[in-house]
Design a protein that fits this description.
The protein has 404 residues and is α+β, with helices and mostly antiparallel strands. The chain has three domains: 106 residues, Butyryl-Coa Dehydrogenase, subunit A, domain 1 (Orthogonal Bundle), CATH 1.10.540.10; 109 residues, Butyryl-CoA Dehydrogenase, subunit A, domain 2; 145 residues, Butyryl-CoA Dehydrogenase, subunit A, domain 3 (Up-down Bundle). It is built from twelve helices and nine strands. The strands form three sheets. The chain has a four-stranded antiparallel sheet with strand order 2-3-7-6, covered by helices on one side. A hairpin with a 4-residue loop joins strand 2 and strand 3. Helix 4 runs antiparallel to helix 5 and helix 9 packs antiparallel against helix 10. The longest helix has 34 residues. The two termini are 35 Å apart. Bound molecules: flavin-adenine dinucleotide. Flavin-adenine dinucleotide (FAD) binds next to strand 1, strand 3 and helix 12.
Length: 404
Amino acid sequence: MAEFSLHLSDEQKQIQDWVHQFAVDVIRPAAHEWDEREEFPYPVVEEAAKVGLYSLDFMMNGMGDPSGLTLPVAIEEMFWGDAGIGMAIMGSGLAAAGIAANGTPEQMIEWVPQCYGTPEKIQLGAFCVSEPDAGSDVSSLRTRAVYDEATDEWVLNGTKAWITNGGIADVHVVVAAVDPDLKGRGQASFVVPPGTKGLSQGQKYKKHGIRASHTAEVVLDEVRVPGRCLLGGKEKLEAKLARARERGKSGEKQPAMSTFEATRPAVGAQALGIARAAYEYSLEYAKERHAFGKPIIMNQAIAFKLANMITEIDASRLLIWRAAWTAKNGGFTHGEGSMSKYKASEVAVRVTEEAIQILGGYGYTREYPVERWHRDAKIHTIFEGTSEIQQLVIARAISGLRIE
Ligand SMILES: Cc1cc2nc3c(=O)[nH]c(=O)nc-3n(C[C@H](O)[C@H](O)[C@H](O)COP(=O)(O)OP(=O)(O)OC[C@H]3O[C@@H](n4cnc5c(N)ncnc54)[C@H](O)[C@@H]3O)c2cc1C
């Protein structure tokens, strides 16, 4: 078990500095443009691939760190740069995590590298769970997976909603119902390889924030994937389904749920990066902006806002680091992962709103970045489990009861 420490190792500090510098030099200068364009920022992600930030190695290094802190530290810096571009860089990681959580070692070796491609030719991954009628309630997925014994293929049909990199990804990981009667316990995850017929992009959403990140529907129309694309393999799935049918419950988590649980501290770190960006910016602004003959920070009303902002930001970081460490060292016992994501997301929304207030009229315009940070922060209370779902997870964990 790794020691929990607030002192980052030399390697972690190096990674932190390296990502921060990339955020300063490449991400921040591009943020406004790609927010306005509302398009996937290929040139920026290609730059990230060239330096090794958009790469399997980077993710593996982060995920392999026994203290768990490398990834949240790096993500905070990336999202400090820009959340839309940050999501464009991190989005493939969700598909990779979905494969790693449910796949066999052979499947990981085959598919995870394809979620990133190479610096010469980047590839993208998408993790497709949510549907128009099933977001928080992932047990009600309607997308069906039916096995065709004659060809040893799985046939997928359905529509996925709000999918990051949906339709533009090379590798789509799709969670589908194999036995809908078993609800969440009757689901399995499948890899849909690049270029598979029948998978197409539906509508591309126009969004409130993280607009450089591509979000779209994914339509699956008679999509046929080889048997080896079932993550975890058929034997394991059949055993799980049999147990679920026999006992009425398998005791195993739904595939989508296990992915989201493991990635929660990382999502908290995204929100933290945005919050810190807004805090730092508004602190400097408050020292320079004069009203009534003195810097506005000389008013307690402004100075106390900033004091509260940094207190909440530091509290969020402590929860995130604890959760990231706990995930690697013994596992969550009372919803620590959810706590970290819940706290950091809510803090990011409040802090970015306060930042707008501190900048006054300028803060409300697109000439200054704080309104973008506010729009970008909001997604964190919604995706990968809304704030209410995080509260539910925590409430169930602390009570041992199936709170509705
Ligand atoms: C930009 C963006 C990117 C996304 N990327 C992905 C992706 O890559 N892959 C993917 O699979 N999905 C993705 N999503 C989907 C996202 O995870 C869902 O939108 C989210 O889980 C919420 O589901 P919903 O929208 O159906 O809301 P609903 O589940 O309909 O919830 C609506 C409201 O009701 C509340 N609510 C629901 N159930 C309860 C309950 N039991 N108790 C209390 N309150 C409740 C919710 O908290 C929320 O406030 C993305 C969404 C967005 C907007």
